Amino acid sequence: MNSFQLGIIVSLLCYLAIGWYAGRRVKHLEDFFVAGRNAPTILILGTLVASFMSTNAFMGEAGMSYMGHAPLVIIMTCFNCVGYIVGAVFFGRYLRRSRALTVPAFFRARFDSRRIQSLAGVSIVAGLTAYLLAVTWGMALIITEVTGFSETVAILMVWASYTLFTLYSGSRGVILTDTAMFLLFSGIIVVASFFIVDAAGGWFHAIKSLATYAEKPDLIAWHGRVGPEVYWKTPLDGLFWATILGIAWGIVVAVSPWQTSRYLMASNEHVVIRSACGALIAMLLLYLVTNFAATTVNLINPSIEPPESTMIWVAMNLLPTALGAILICGVLAAGLSSASTFLSLIGFSLSHDIFESTHGGGDQSATGKPNLRAARLAMLVVGGSVIALALLLPRNIYWLTHFAGPLFASSWGVVAFMSIWSQSLTEPGAFWGMVAGFVVNVAMNAFSLAGVVKWPVLADPILIGVVSSYVVTRWLSNRGQMTQHEDEYRALLHHMPVSERETAAVRQTLVWAKVMVVMGMVIAASLAFFYALPYQEAVRTLAIQGAGALN
Amino acid sequence: MMLAIAYGAVLTASGLWIWRRVLKDYGADEDE
């Protein structure tokens, strides 16, 4: 057994042990679904980032950066990270106040509508099963590449690892393992970056070399590589693309179930706000480090194929063996953490929102024991289906990720925010608005996949889905009136519990705001000193040398 | 330089906005 095989097996056993530890404390449906609603900031922050960053961040986006598009990934991140703050303040804390078990259950309570709960539940099952499939493929690909195991064995290993602890411990286990995985992949990517920069000749030498890199010009210019040979023809094309996609993914971050459902587990509203602030900081730093490191790899090996395996190449060829094994475990952890969150949400939605099989006797079964069997059975069935799909379907990780993730922005985005803030949103408006966003997004993606049409960036299916949802929601709501229940429930959501006004808690939350302000200044100054100025100097020197050569 | 400023601006502006929002929604702090 080599170091990579050993590392992967040991890390999987650790996650199982954490899951087993957490599972022993599961007594009620609230423990299983929302971790007893007493999670502290670090666990919510950990699960927010870990469930968002999947293998795609360390493979797909790192590959994009290796190809010379890191600045676009970073600009996109600037926009989508703001979704954490907007989502927490305008939706997340109200969602938590509702004390629902799932996000679809919140919609049911808000609109007194069983069909909305079912619809939201179905969209979770459809969207997250597709996403889970993509993540399972991504992880199996890594295991196959670094261990030499067959694809079937790799898929079964991946499935067993995220299914076992999720099945046993539910959200209690998921938030603990997510946080452990978040710490693992954040730590190792920082360490790996030091090795990469060192191998490239040190920081300032790397910046100078990247700024004047002839094979891939503009590698670290603000717009990255543009021109006739790449997708973005001009810097403005690139900026436009990154802005639109960043806003679209910002809506995903703000309302998607695998992000907002984390807030249901927070011990209070301040934890919701603090963890959103922490997630914004962590994501900005992680994306900066990961994508700059992937770009720098060009100076060490400019011909890695496929580019998505840049970090795997680093782990296997650049880092000392033990650290390489940890980096592989870190990339796998990013995938596993997303997968466990997806699987748990699918199980909850199937059992609680669609079939209502956890409802008998409130959160207890007729025998007085927690009625968790239905949720676990649902996870097992979905997990089995994912194995079958992973083995039978042709692999299409990129498309599935970019279809399934943003589906919720189109379907839920408008309704989620309006359910809190609109004084005229009616049940038919909400229901058909969700349907319109879902259908428009799926149809546009289907046409695109079939090669019938190539949508321009401005007509991205996510954004057109959001606009369609808004138009339908508004149009139907204007033709009806909110019921007394809807009005009263919305008013209840805006009633702030006295306990949330405790001075100590408020002060602690303000510390996070202060940290963000200070970090923003420090990061801007550091980037200017360590990146922008040396970059400008290198480009200027190259231009002078070029002019001298011409003369 | 544009990236450097954008990165810092996102964090600083978000921090200032959260500060204002928390004070507005959860009551005045003694420091205010």
Compact description:
By secondary structure, chain A is an all-alpha fold. Chain A is built from 21 helices and no strands.
Mean pLDDT of chain A: 89
Class inferred from helices and paired strands of chain B: mainly alpha
Q: Report strand % of chain B.
A: under 5%
Alpha-carbon distance between the two ends of chain A: 62 Å
Largest interface: A-B, 44 and 28 residues
N- and C-termini, Cα separation of chain B: 34 Å
Instruction: Calculate the mean pLDDT score of chain B and round it.
Output: 83
Q: Note the main sheet of chain A.
A: none
How large is the count of helical segments of chain A? 21
Instruction: Give the helices and strands of chain A as they follow along the chain.
Output: HHHHHHHHHHHHHHHHHHHHH
* Rg of chain B computed from alpha carbons, rounded to a whole number of angstroms: 13 Å
Count the strands of chain A?
Answer: 0
Largest sheet of chain B: none
- Shape label of chain A: globular
Which ranges of chain B are low-confidence, i.e. pLDDT below 50, for 5 or more consecutive residues?
Answer: none
Helix percent of chain A reads: over 70%
Summary tags:
heterodimer; A: 551 residues; mainly alpha; 0% strand; B: 32 residues
